[in-house]
Amino acid sequence: MTDVKRRIAITAAALAALVSVAGQAEAAQCGNTASGFENWKREFAAEAQGRVSASSLQALMGTSYSAPTIAADRGQHSFKLSLEQFMAKRGASTIVSQGRRMKAANAALFASIQQRYGVPAGPLIAIWGMETGFGKVRGNVNTLSAVATLAYDCRRSAYFTDQLYAALKLVDTGVLTPSTRGAAHGEVGHTQFLPKNILLYGTGGDLNNVSAAMASTANFLKGHGWQPGQGYAPGQPNFAALQGWNAASVYQQALSIMGRQIDGAE
Questions:
Q1: Is 241 within 8 Å of 221 (Cβ atoms)?
Q2: What is the per-residue pLDDT across 101-141, written as a single tens digit (0 to 9) for each?
Q3: pLDDT tens digits, residue range 85-97?
Q4: Largest distance between two CA atoms of the chain
Q5: What CATH architecture applies to the domain 78-139+185-263?
Q6: Spans of all domains in the chain
Q7: How confident is the model at residue 266 (pLDDT cuts 50, 70, 90)?
Q8: N-terminal to C-terminal alpha carbon distance within the chain
Q9: How many whole angstroms separate alpha carbon 133 and alpha carbon 72?
Q10: For the packed helices 83-90 and 249-263, what is the interaxial angle rounded to 10 degrees?
Q11: Which GO BP terms, alphabetically (predicted)?
């Protein structure tokens, strides 16, 4: 390499490094307390221009730091329980008994969903019972504030930044509004869909409607590899789809057990 080429290469590398540093300096800075949230919103809104509309960014600027969201995020201790302890804490026997009644009362709905998506009633009803007690507990936290808080929070900032962009797009389309309320991590509806999952797997209806929520949940499982007619116990083909729903092993196993009991498979 000639001296001229070497100097050009060094200069190019230096410029690339400066661009990288500059990009990092411009990125919205995460934080672990409420004190930096307002400044983070301004930084994030500047970055997001051109990716989402001005009206959705205005909705973002109206959000507030959600202390209940942070408390919930730091308090997920039940996932460390044994399977037996976890199922007892979540009231698995009640979910199964009520779930069987739900299946009978909505037989036509679940039959049509299984025909379309290949997913039987059991796992859908188990998810429904586990997530919201069949719609009774859907949360009362402002959804946009919850997602923005977690995008700002350093613990899982990258993951929830994706969720925030999805939420802002849903505001643009009217699926979410600045006043939408749901669970502490930004989940909404009967089966608690995060914003990105609404974009990817929502079937178009209001997820606070049972039919839309069940169809969207079935579409989620299908999108995660659900194979019609195959089992969903650990080690069987469809267990991987349940793993896509929740990362906690005890949660996955509980859904499998309850779903099979609701379906009468065991």
A1: yes
A2: 999 999 999 999 999 999 999 999 999 999 999 999 999 99
A3: 999 999 999 999 9
A4: 81
A5: Orthogonal Bundle (1.10)
A6: 1-30, 78-139+185-263
A7: low
A8: 72
A9: 18
A10: 60
A11: peptidoglycan catabolic process
Question: Could you say which DSSP state residue 193 is in?
Answer: B
User: Distance between CA atoms of 126 and 96, rounded to whole angstroms?
Assistant: 7
Number of other CB atoms surrounding residue 197 within 10 Å: 22
Nearest to 117 by CA among 189, 190, 211, 207: 211
Cα dihedral 255, 136, 141, 209 in deg (nearest 10): 90
1 CB-near residues (< 8 Å, 6+ apart): 9
Two structure tokens written together for 122:
């059991």
Mean pLDDT of 247-256: 96
Question: Model confidence over 143-195: pLDDT tens digits?
Answer: 999 999 999 999 999 999 999 999 999 999 999 999 999 999 999 999 999 99
Q: Give the pLDDT confidence score for residue 75 in this predicted structure.
A: 78
Residue position matching structure tokens 């025909």: 115
Percent of the chain with pLDDT over 90: 85
**Left, alpha or beta for 235 (phi > 0: left; psi -120 to 50: alpha)?**
left
Q: CA-CA distance, 204 to 213, in Å (whole number)?
A: 10
Can you tell me the distance from the alpha carbon of 74 to that of 197, in angstroms, rounded to the nearest whole number?
A: 23
Amino acid (1-letter code) at residue 81:
L
